[in-house]
Every structure is written in structure tokens, then in C-alpha cells.
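ok, trying the design again with the full structure, not the truncated one.
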């Protein structure tokens, strides 16, 4: 594992400070939110420079990722040599990407009339985080960025495990990175969620969260030994875009699902890392859910009072803290040192009783240590991980090469929307004689309740319409969802970045709609769907990334269908010239299962005859796939960013 945050850089520097409850890593900044001085968990000191050949990725977010990546460069290179670059995948979580650098580029534009020439769209788009890591390493397995707000990093590790279980990879570089910027600090400020003091989780005096930044990246392999990801639990709350279910039902569901996946009872867990943001609503619901699952005795703590809330990186960062604890227990004769809960000690009597770990506290683990970590994000997106280490675990060995699999999935239902293509007959005619997709106003989105519909962006109206139509065709809405979009809510982010640059006050309602998983969250809320969802981007490989992530969900829950939702709208004029993708407004929904009635597909990465990279199609890969699905042709191959994929009818 490689890690960097406000406590330092690398395990040897971070671990002792973490276990000692060192809160000295915070610093004050008054340049992000007008009229406020904020305490922030900022990474100090120089960061590595992005190599010249990858200058299009040169942003602070990717420099943080590189700082973590360099710490584990040797074992990653060994894995690449052992299994080959096509068998190594990359899954990176992020929620800010290069927003800070986009802010600097727009300040330059305000002063000079043009964007900073060093700025490139690859720095800002969510898929750029994983694209940078893959290009730096020279690997060509499945590569995508997961962006489910504050659960992004935990979901990246869950997907890495599934990629190994599916046989698509023999090793995966997975984790998350996020960097401080004006958009998030101003956004949480207008939500009245940031404290002017250090975050104080579970205290009667708590006043909100403290933001931080950092990166945590792991080399994940299927071999025995080391720290193991034992269980994954996921849920959607279908409640509110920026506030958790006050009863903690979504959090409880995620924790119970993780225990079930790990095959253990609550009493087998030795420690729980709380999401623990220090906001009134989060702490109230999480304590209630934790008490129902574990009772009052399990040691718990929030590590956010040590590094801040690192947003999209938090899930991987806190899994990394659990990794450090579990790594320490192997050399401590079964004694698990605990991350202390650092606060003022004044318990809120309204909170359900849980055991908050004190400094120096440890737990005896005679039968092997087992710990849990919670991550909850905007859109009601929850992910809980169970990690463990057994005293009897075998030493780690080099990854072994497995044959490339052909994975089967069935498309049981589909629906699509684009300007002028608003029903199934129109799409069938388009598939027979495809033409460029034009632009136009979004659909009326009649499925979305009126109160939510007024707040919907054009992309949300498009993809949610496609999603509801697909679910209605299949006559079910209890589906896991995967939302894949290259641009997602970037246009809304650009609007708010411009407001931040001009030091205007931003809208709290609009801020919660800038997260990449806003569309998936709104679909869950509108459909009342509490099944798990994830959202991703993968630059020119976004359709492939979405399909692979849908397969990951099917691997974790084979009996539950997955709704793959794809869509984009043209990029805002400010940044459109920096992106080489042909703009189009479209939404596509595919209901995928492991069996049942429908079109059964064989799927392979790296197989089949791909079109020439110079061939230009005036529509996205997702619509080329739909064209093939409706055409009756026996097979199709697509190539984007050099990754060749093929589908065949079975």
C-alpha cells in the first residue's frame, strides 16, 4: 500500500502518528472560502512531478496519486512482469479530480481572456485519474475511475476484488485520491457542514466536518497472505442527495451485507472505523446503525479528526488505516492496536451508545484480526468493507497468469433516448441506417417527482428517462445500477467553478448535483430503489468501463440484475475544444443478468477484429453497441484508447 495525507507520506511515517492520535497535521487557509478561515488536512511538502510524456495529466490530484504510487512501484512492476500488462487493471476513486487546476485555468481566463495553455481536459475529467495511473504504469487491462462521492475509494477496492474473481485481471492497482479545491470547500460551506474548528465526531459540541486531501493506492492480487478484503456490503438510501437517512437504515444494510459476504457474525469483528464526519446527521444515524448491528461494546473510532474528510479518497484512506492496524497485529503477537477516537470527550446523550476507542487502546485477537470500515456518500451511496488477517495465512506469492476468460451476460431489456429518437421504433430505424446524433432539449422526465424534476439537469432527465423506460419494459425496479458517463456533471461543476473563481456564493442545491453519481442517486430516489449503485468514467473507454463494472456487480450478486445506465451531453463551450470526443446528447439503459430471457452475449477484452483506430463514428461506443444489439449481426468489436473488446451472440 502507498499512502499520503496530512499525517505524512508512507506507512512508516503515517502509522505511528495515526496510532498516537496525532492531530498536528492541520493548517489554516483563508483563500478558499470568502470570509472564512478553515482548518484543513492539507498534504505538506513537495510532490513528485508528472513526467513530460504525461503532461496532459499534470494536476495536483494526479501528483498526489503519483506520490502514493511511487511507494509501491517495485511490487507493481514485479506483478506486471509476472502476468503481463494486459492482465493488470486499474480502478481509482475520486470526487474532485483536477478541479483545483481547473479553477486556476479559469482564473487565468478571467485575467487574460484565454485558458492557461498548460491546462488539459484530462486533468479535470473523472476518468483521468485512472487513465493517468494506467498510462504511467503502461498497463492495458480494465481501467476506470469510480466516483460515488465519499464512498468512491471503498467501491474501488470492491471492484478490484471482483475483477480478480471474474478472471479479467491477475492484479489490480486500486484505491483513491482527492485534492482540496475551492468548489468543495465552498460547497460544504454553503451546506453549513464545515466546522471552523477541528471536527469533533460524536460530541455534543460537534459542529461539522473538516476537509482534507490525500491518496491511498493498493496492489490487489488473488493470492493468499497479507491483509485480505474479506467482505463487501453496499446499499443505496433512496432518501436525499446530500443528507443521510436519519434512521441509518442504509448504513445498517451495508454493514450487515458486508458481514454476510465475509461469512462472519458481528461478534467476530474486533474494530469498526466509523465514517464519522462530525456532522449532526451523520453521527446520529451511524451511531444508531452501529448500535443495532454490534451493540455498545465494539471499539469504534473516526479517523477524520486526524487527517480530515478526504472525500472521494476517504474509503480507500480508511481502508489503508485498517491495513496499517492489521499489518501491525501480525508483529504484535495477536494484539490489535486501535486508531483512537480523538474528540473533546463530551458525549452527545442523544446518540446511541457505542464504544469510542481511547488512545493506547488495543484488542486481543487470538483467532485472527477482523476489522470493518464504513463509507457513506452523497446520493445515499454506502459501502462497507471487512478486512482481516489470519495468523495462519500463507506468505504472499507472485501473481499467476490465468487464461483470458470469455464472460457471458444477458441483455434482458433496453431503452434509449436522444433528440429525435424517442421511442423503440425510431431506434430500430436508426440502427438499420445510423446517422449522426443531433442535439435538442431533454425529455419531460415524467417519472421523476415534480419537486425533484425542477432540480434536474438535462443529463439527469435524459438518463433517468432511459432508466425508467428500461425498468418498465422489464417490469422491475429493484435493480443494482451502474451509471457510466465520460462527462457526467462536469458542466454543472464548471458553472460553480466559475462562480468560485469570481467569489460568488454558490447554491447548495446545485453543489450536491455536481457529484458524478448525481444521476444514479436521483434515479434511486425517484424509483425508491435501495439496491447498490456505482458511477464511473473512463475517458474514451467509458462504455467498456461501465460494462465491466456491471459485470463486477453481477459477480458480487449473481442473482440480482444490474441496470447499466449510460449517457452524456455536449461539453460546455469553455472546455469543449480540449476534448476530442464527438459531442452528442444520449441516454441508454441495458438490463443485464447472468441468465434468463434476452440476448445472451459472450464478452472478451482483447479479442476479435477491431475497427481501425482512424475510423470515425459520429456517435459514442455505447450507441454503436446498441446498433449491433438491434442489427442481428453475430459479433462486434470496438477499440478505444487502444483497448480492444469484442461481443458475440451465444
Amino acid at each position: 500500500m502507498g499512502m499520503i495525507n496530512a499525517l505524512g507520506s508512507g506507512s512508516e511515517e503515517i502509522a505511528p502518528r495515526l496510532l498516537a492520535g496525532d492531530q498536528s497535521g492541520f493548517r489554516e487557509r483563508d483563500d478558499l472560502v470568502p470570509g472564512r478561515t478553515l482548518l484543513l488536512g492539507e498534504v505538506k511538502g513537495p510532490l513528485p512531478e508528472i513526467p513530460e510524456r504525461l503532461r496532459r495529466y499534470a494536476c495536483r490530484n494526479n501528483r498526489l496519486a503519483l506520490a502514493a504510487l511511487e511507494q509501491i512501484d517495485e511490487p507493481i512492476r514485479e506483478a506486471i512482469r509476472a502476468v503481463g500488462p494486459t492482465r493488470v487493471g486499474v480502478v481509482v476513486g475520486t470526487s474532485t479530480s483536477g478541479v483545483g487546476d481547473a479553477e486556476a485555468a479559469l482564473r487565468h481566463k478571467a485575467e487574460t481572456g484565454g485558458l492557461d495553455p498548460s491546462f488539459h481536459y484530462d486533468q479535470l475529467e473523472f476518468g483521468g485519474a485512472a487513465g493517468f495511473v494506467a498510462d504511467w504504469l503502461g498497463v492495458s487491462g480494465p481501467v476506470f475511475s469510480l466516483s460515488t462521492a465519499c464512498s468512491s475509494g471503498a467501491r474501488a477496492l470492491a471492484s478490484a476484488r471482483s475483477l480478480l474473481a471474474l478472471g479479467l485481471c491477475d492484479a489490480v492497482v486500486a484505491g483513491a485520491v482527492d485534492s482540496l479545491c475551492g468548489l468543495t470547500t465552498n460547497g460544504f460551506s454553503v451546506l453549513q457542514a464545515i466546522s471552523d474548528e477541528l471536527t469533533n465526531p460524536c460530541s455534543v459540541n460537534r459542529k461539522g466536518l473538516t476537509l482534507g486531501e490525500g491518496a491511498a493506492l493498493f496492489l490487489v492480487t488473488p493470492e493468499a497472505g497479507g491483509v485480505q478484503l474479506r467482505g463487501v456490503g453496499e446499499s443505496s438510501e433512496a432518501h436525499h442527495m446530500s443528507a443521510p437517512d436519519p434512521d441509518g437504515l442504509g448504513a445498517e444494510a451495508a454493514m450487515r451485507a458486508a458481514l454476510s459476504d465475509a461469512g462472519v457474525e458481528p461478534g467476530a469483528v474486533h474494530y469498526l472505523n466509523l465514517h464519522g464526519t462530525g456532522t449532526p446527521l451523520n453521527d446520529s444515524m451511524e451511531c444508531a446503525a452501529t448500535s443495532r448491528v454490534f451493540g455498545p461494546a465494539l471499539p469504534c473510532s473516526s479517523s477524520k479528526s486526524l487527517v480530515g474528510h478526504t472525500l472521494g479518497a476517504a474509503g480507500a484512506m480508511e481502508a489503508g488505516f485498517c491495513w496499517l492496524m492489521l499489518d501491525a497485529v501480525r508483529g504484535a503477537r495477536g494484539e490489535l492496536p486501535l486508531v483512537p477516537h480523538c474528540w473533546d470527550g463530551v458525549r452527545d446523550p442523544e446518540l446511541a451508545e457505542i464504544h469510542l476507542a481511547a488512545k493506547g487502546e488495543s484488542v486481543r485477537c487470538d483467532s485472527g484480526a477482523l476489522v470493518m470500515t464504513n463509507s457513506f456518500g452523497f446520493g445515499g451511496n454506502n459501502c462497507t468493507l471487512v478486512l482481516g488477517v489470519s495468523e495462519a495465512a500463507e506468505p504472499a506469492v507472485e501473481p499467476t497468469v490465468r487464461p483470458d476468460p470469455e464472460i457471458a451476460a444477458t441483455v434482458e431489456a433496453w431503452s434509449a433516448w436522444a433528440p429525435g429518437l424517442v421511442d423503440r421504433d425510431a431506434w430500430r430505424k436508426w440502427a438499420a441506417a445510423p446517422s449522426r446524433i443531433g442535439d435538442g432539449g431533454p425529455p419531460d422526465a415524467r417519472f421523476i417527482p415534480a419537486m425533484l424534476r425542477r432540480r434536474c439537469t438535462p443529463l439527469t432527465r435524459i438518463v433517468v428517462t432511459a432508466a425508467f423506460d428500461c425498468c418498465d419494459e422489464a417490469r422491475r425496479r429493484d435493480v443494482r445500477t451502474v451509471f457510466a458517463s465520460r462527462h457526467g456533471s462536469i458542466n454543472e461543476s464548471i458553472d460553480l467553478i466559475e462562480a468560485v473563481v469570481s467569489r460568488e456564493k454558490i447554491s447548495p442545491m446545485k453543489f450536491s448535483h455536481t457529484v458524478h453519481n448525481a444521476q444514479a442517486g436521483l434515479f434511486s430516489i425517484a424509483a425508491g430503489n435501495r439496491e447498490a449503485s456505482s458511477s464511473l468514467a473512463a475517458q474514451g473507454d467509458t462504455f467498456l468501463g461501465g460494462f465491466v463494472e456491471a459485470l463486477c456487480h453481477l459477480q458480487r450478486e449473481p442473482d440480482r440484475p444490474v441496470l447499466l445506465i449510460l449517457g452524456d451531453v455536449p461539453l460546455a463551450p469553455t472546455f469543449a475544444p480540449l476534448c476530442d470526443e464527438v459531442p452528442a446528447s444520449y441516454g441508454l439503459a441495458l438490463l443485464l443478468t447472468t441468465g434468463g430471457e434476452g440476448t445472451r452475449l459472450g464478452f472478451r477484452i482483447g479479442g476479435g477484429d477491431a475497427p481501425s483506430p482512424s475510423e470515425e463514428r459520429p456517435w459514442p461506443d455505447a450507441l454503436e453497441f446498441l446498433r449491433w444489439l438491434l442489427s442481428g449481426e453475430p459479433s462486434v468489436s470496438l477499440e478505444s484508447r487502444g483497448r480492444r473488446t469484442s461481443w458475440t451472440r451465444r
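Keeping the full-length input from now on. The chain is about 35% helix and 20% strand.
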